[in-house]
């Protein structure tokens, strides 16, 4: 690959890197792990997409917290949090830990948007929680929407060979 053909790729990579570094700097640095809970930044709360139902959430506990250090403590913390949610009783069930050390859990019964917001606010009040959000499933839709454009007819090569003989 010549230098001139790599230039756009290098420029795009440099631009992306600059945006990534800027985003990290704008996010700030977390307080030291020994910081008192009152000195910690409040937990980030994700927004529910749509009206629901919301049956699965992602919670990330802070690096210094017991639930992050020991996965076996997560279910007990979920049970404690579920007991604090106003309204009808909820069952929170730990499912798995993601690669980013965030935990995925299921909620029974599934919640509407208001119920999801109540649950996330209870999690956000816990000083050990870094962020909480619904596990919103993301789908990729086609970029261009419109009538289908007819393409060239595709023919089976075996049929072409036999018909040409």
UniProtKB/TrEMBL annotation:
<keyword id="KW-0732">Signal</keyword>
<protein>
    <recommendedName>
        <fullName>Peptidase inhibitor I9</fullName>
    </recommendedName>
</protein>
<feature type="signal peptide">
    <location>
        <begin position="1"/>
        <end position="26"/>
    </location>
</feature>
């Amino acid at each position: 690959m010549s230098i001139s053909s790599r230039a756009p790729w290098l420029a795009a990579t440099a631009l992306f890197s600059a945006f990534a570094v800027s985003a990290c700097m704008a996010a700030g640095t977390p307080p030291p792990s020994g910081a008192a809970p009152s000195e910690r930044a409040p937990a980030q709360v994700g927004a529910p997409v749509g009206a629901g139902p919301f049956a699965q959430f992602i919670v990330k506990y802070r690096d210094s917290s017991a639930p992050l250090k020991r996965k076996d403590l997560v279910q007990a913390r979920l049970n404690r949090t579920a007991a604090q949610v106003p309204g009808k009783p909820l069952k929170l069930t730990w499912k798995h830990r993601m690669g980013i050390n965030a935990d995925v859990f299921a909620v029974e019964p599934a919640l509407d948007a208001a119920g999801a917001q109540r649950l996330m606010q209870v999690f956000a009040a816990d000083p050990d929680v870094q962020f909480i959000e619904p596990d919103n499933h993301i789908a990729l839709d086609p970029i261009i929407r419109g009538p289908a454009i007819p393409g060239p007819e595709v023919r089976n090569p075996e049929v072409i060979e036999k018909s040409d003989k």
